Amino acid sequence: MNIPGPDQNYSVGSGILFICLAAAFFLAAGCTHYPVNQPLSRYDPDIGYRGKNIDSAARADDLLLMLSFSGGGTRAAAFSYGVLEALRDTAVGPDGNRQRLLDKVDIISAVSGGSFTAAYYGLFGERIFQDFEPRFLKKDVQGDLGKAVFFNPYNWARLFSPYFDRSDLAAEYYDREVFGGATFADLGKQGGPFIGINATDMIHGTRVSFIQDAFDLICSDLSSFPVARACAASSAVPLLLTPITLKNYAGSCGFRMPEPLQASLRNRDLPDRRFDLANNIVPFLDSERKPYLHLVDGGVADNLGLRAVLERVTAQGNVYDTLKAGGLEKIHKVIFIVVNAETEIDTRWDKMGSIPPFGAMVDSYSSIAISRYNVETIALLRESFSRWAEEIRAGRCPAGKIDTAPGACGDIEFYLVEVKFDALPDPADRSYFKRLPTSFTLPPEDVDKLRQAADRIMSNTRDFKRLLRDLEK
Fold first, then answer.
1. How is residue 341 annotated by DSSP?
2. pLDDT in tens, 21-53
3. Are strands 333-340 and 63-69 parallel, antiparallel or unpaired?
């Protein structure tokens, strides 16, 4: 009889342990799958997370205030947070009936880093000023995610699955550490403002908003979808993070493209913005050819979060019909506050004769594309104001009787307040903030500086001063 020695026992035990660990690894890898968005049983334009269904008690009948928060990691989140603080500390109106501007916010459209601030405020309201800094802004989110990827063997197995990747892991982290498991049904119960979180379809480059109007296209029910997962999609920077995947159920709920958009497709000889919008929607309506959506950073399609408004007006045909659809036809002041945590173009390579490396080329390409598109978006919005004013007056006033007196049918004023680092008078300040990294970690002192910069810029911006003067009348 051969009695195994201690070394043989250790070897056999190690082999069994290895086999068990390997089995557990492949079992975890095989079972891991991203959470699948749920189908919509029946299309109903009156239910779900839509702007018209947000009943805000603080909404003013005569004023529409929209914020847009750009991308840019924690830098953008902190800069946007500073704007919320400034609005909280700004009261307007006559004595005895003064209100904070923050309480007048109707809509926040956000991208990437800005989506975290928008979503947190939409879910938790005033609580954002108590715990958003320790829960997100001043937390090493990027470091925590790195540890989850590289130092957790259980996650190694999960990441081995073809149906689970880094952004899915990030979404779980945000759900647990930041948003507390909240869904869009929870967001809809808070009474406003209406939050639009924006991502980009990786294949077609189309902006995709996490609102029920957009999910109608793919016959999916947004109500059970985690807010954290939407923010993960909105901030899924290509190469660094992976796409968030949605299942397309289009054709199963009775949704049809609105007739004005269908009509624009039939008139292919005269393509316009509405035609382009309808043409961008078409692929999403065919679940056989496009059974999945792979979503990446919203900044790829629109880094300011403003295209959502422009496209909504385009789809409706004119701005007055858009306002009526949301029950806002009595509006006299429309305010856009655009928070742009822009980056600085790296000019170092202008001084070097050597050929720039691949990384510098990628950075330059993305910076140029985003910067130029931002400029075009702002210009398009400004140029739309005069046309929109005419459309509102034509819709509200009797023919030939346009009255522009305060409170009358023709009284409509637009404001565009840009909150960006270029507004800082000191070139050193501008360069400092623009060069802060766009990662999800910043030193606490930089977070505080960004908050303070937002307040300084807001209080000294000409258009914001004009707004405050007009609101005091």
1. -
2. 444 555 555 579 999 999 999 999 999 999 888
3. parallel
Q: Which residues contact 63 (CB under 8 A, 6 or more apart)?
A: 104, 331, 332, 333, 335
Q: Where are the alpha helices (DSSP H) in 397-420?
A: none
Q: Alpha-carbon distance 185 to 225, whole Å?
A: 8
Closest CA to 282 of 256, 311, 308: 256
- DSSP for 246-286? EE--TTSS-----HHHHHHHH-TTS--HHHHHHHHHGGGG-
What kind and span of H or E run contains 206?
Answer: none
**pLDDT one-digit tens code per residue, 64-100:** 999 999 999 999 999 999 999 999 999 998 777 889 9
- Compute how many other C-beta atoms are within 10 angstroms of the C-beta atom of residue 120: 26
Cβ–Cβ < 8 Å for 170, 111: no
Length of the chain: 473
Mean pLDDT value of segment 350-365 = 76
Two tokens at 49? 């997370």
Determine how β-strand 292-296 pairs with β-strand 194-201. antiparallel
The DSSP secondary structure of 449-464, one letter per residue, reads HHHHHHHHHHHH-HHH
Distances in whole angstroms, Cα of residue 287 to Cα of each of 7, 44, 251: 60, 19, 7
Residue 402's SS3 state is coil
On the question of pLDDT at 215 being above 50, the answer is yes
Report whether 180 contacts 93 (CB < 8 A): no
When computed from its CA atoms, the radius of gyration of the chain, rounded to whole angstroms, is 25
pTM across the whole model: 0.91
Instruction: Measure the N-to-C terminal CA separation of the chain; round to a whole number of Å.
Output: 103
For residue 130, pLDDT over 90 is answered with yes
Residue % of the chain over a pLDDT of 90? 72
How far, in Å, CA of 383 to CA of 446, rounded? 35
Closest-CA residue to 215 (of 174, 175, 247)? 247
CA distance 51 to 232: 22
CA distance linking residue 410 with residue 396, whole number of Å = 7
Find the range with the poorest average confidence among 9-18, 130-139, 271-280, 400-409: 9-18
